[in-house]
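Researcher: Please predict.
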Amino acid sequence: MKVHRLAGNYSDHKEVEFIQNAFEDKTAETGYFVLAEDACPIWEYLKNINLTNGVLYQLKICKDFKADIGIVTDGRVVAAVHSIFELVKFIDIKHKVSLTVKDNNQRTLSNIYQQLIYLNFPINKFDIFLEAEYKDFNRLGRLRRGAKTLLETADKLTEDLKSVHSEVVSEDYLKTHVREPLKNIAERLTELSFEKDIKIAIAATKKTGKSVIVNSMLGVEIAPTSVDLPTPNACIYKAHDKNDFYTLEYNGKTAAYNSFGELHKVIVAEFDKAQKLKNNSIPDMTISYPKNLSKKGAADFGNYIIYDTPGPDFAASKGKHRECAKENIELSDVTVFALDYEKHLTDGEVAFLKEVKSLFASRKKFYSLIFVLNKIDVRYTSSGDKSVVRMLDLVRCKLIELGYDDCIILAASALNYWDACAVTDIDGCGRLGGDYAAIVNTLAKIADSGDDITDDERTTLSNLENAFKNMSKFDRIKSDSLDMIKDYSGITRLHSYIQYVAQTKAAAEKFKHISSEIDTECTKLRNFYNSNNLEEEIRNGKADIGKLKFAVRKFDERISYTFPPKGEIYPYEIDFFKDSDGTELSSEREPVSHKRLAASFLVALGNIKGGAPTLSSILKGCAETVFKDIYNEKTYAKKAVEDVKSNFKTALKKKHTAEKSELEKILTDSVKAALKRNDIENHQALETEVIPLYKSTASELLLGYECILNLRSDKAKKYADNLRKSFEEAGIQEFNVELPKFKFAFLYDPSEIKIPDLSSVFSKEFDKIFSNISKMGFWAKFFSGNWSFGDIYDIEKYSQTLINNFDMISGGLEISLRDALETSCKAAKDALIKNLDDTNKNTVAQTETFVAVCTNTALMVKESIENAKTAKEGDVEEKRKKYKFVKQIEKMTEEFMKSWKNISEGENGD
């Protein structure tokens, strides 16, 4: 097999030419291309490399990565490769290949499958297992052979236990620890009856081609495919071998139909009714169809139950469709999730996939979710991506980001497949075959014939004719049969992979999950024996009572010291807090009230450790920046005059039409603009100096509280662990000390620290300036002087007059500005201090709540200890009776437990 390495440098012209030449040489085998492991993802490489669409259509490319892969023959590894590149060179796709993954990494296994899919290999030719899976398959074989006998043993044991009762063990306790575990085991064993149909769920949002995929599995068009809304219910398809009728169980009634066409019309009518309902939902349908139905070349799904799940599209408003879809997915053994080639991973699909991810994780279903990128035929007619591999890799990378690390995605055109199936029912197409040209001509001829052809049939013929032509034009494949169209559509590959997963991987996963549940129930039975070590308790009872008294006393002392009364805090627990006079509080040994700690906020804000400037000095510095340019260098007045000059152009054109009010407005706007610029500089100073100071103060103080709570929580946990050990030494294994678990990060999250809007404080004061300007007679003074109104048209003379007048009256304006800014600084400081004080009060409240909960828990623990001690002093004789009863149950279940161990672990523990 010819395999080429690619470095992955898509800007290298030589690499582009190398790929192009491989396709231009018609005499040689093009082969397969393997992208270097350290290169960018395949989708990025194909997006950026300058290849023609003709090459992108045909390019078979995958991504290399290191993996220890064993080649298996006759149950043993006969060779080993260490990368995908070596694997592609080694394998022969003409024969079935079995592989093992040595690192037992599920993602490695899925990644191998995906690279083979990228290369368009027939994946039903591969069996790929983790090494650990061989053990599971061995267990599966043993269970298949012994499940019936084991179930009979469990049923007999359940029946025998019905007559067992005890005065020392309550019926509820016996039910919880013995009867219910046995009942659950029997249910799990019944569920593992492998003669039962395997369930396959098909899921997707609307208009993704989901129902066409369902019909391709059924072999006939039963599922509606032209309804605008999502499937409004779950449609469950089951094959039967009783007769040739089709049946519909719906809304409490069962009806029979002579043909799938009649049934199809009924279902469509019900779907149409659902669109008019308020919740767009109708009851589920169960559809039975003949098992001997002609599959028209499709894979045989007669032994499977197929769930066409409702689309989750209306979940945001109603939720019923989404929940129904999730329920059916959870019940299934294999789930196929269809995505649209052009509209893949919409917001609704992403949200839904995030929800169902937990379903697969909880049931340990790694293989049973299969993604399919449907409608790949649109690449021929759309202006979008031409490379199927690029789109598959892009979508898979996005799915991995959603948490589907071990996902596998295939590409398909359900429409092309279905058209190739449906065309054989059209007159003249029953034996469609021959060479490419003959097939295309036949399709066109029949489509152009008379009125005997329906519109739907003509559409099918046209679609199929285009499919043949597109394969020839873009993929350079002249198909000579309908089977080639079906194979190239990807649906036959999807069918075979679904069956492979259902029959091997999903069956093993199902066994593994159920086997794990049986193990859990058996552990409950063993715990019933082992947790009642009554002989030792009876023997050591008196000594244990003394240990319990000691444990109560020590726990009480330690907890009382850890949590001071009224939630107060020991200053030595943190060295940040200072008293109101600035002295350290850490030297005090007695608890300090939160009232004193609140005062430390103000001290810290005014005088931060490390010599940082005070809040007052920073605010004052911010205010000074406003006056630097205005009154020292006169740039303020100059700028105002320049603005006046610029805005007077309109007035000059009017000549003697300018009025005093116009000039006053122009000058007012100019002054406001200058103030606004300096206001912005002032805000920037606040953002770079004041706010960081405030944040650092609040963060450090909140962190101090967090440290205190974490310290106390750790101490309490340590005391509880010591107490637990004391109990263990006293032989009271079932007693467990649990103090509350708190997350204290909510006290220290800088992003949650609220900062007052200081800029609004300054803006309010600036607005007051302009209301005071007119009261000062500023404009009257400004327009006074030795010049006439007509001089305004002499720009130079007028400008000089403005400057002289501004110099005379600017002092009054300066005083007004300074007063306003000083007021702003004080208001800003007060706002910060009040906000920080509120933060402290909230934190104190949360701290006191935590302390109260811990203290109450400590009292409850003490009470529990006392109760345990009292019970131990009076139950020695009762435990002797209980011990005898437990041994009786252990003897009765001994045969079953031994049988399960042999099946689960093998005779030799393999």
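Model: Residues 294-298, 608-612, 629-634, 651-659 have pLDDT under 50 and may be disordered.
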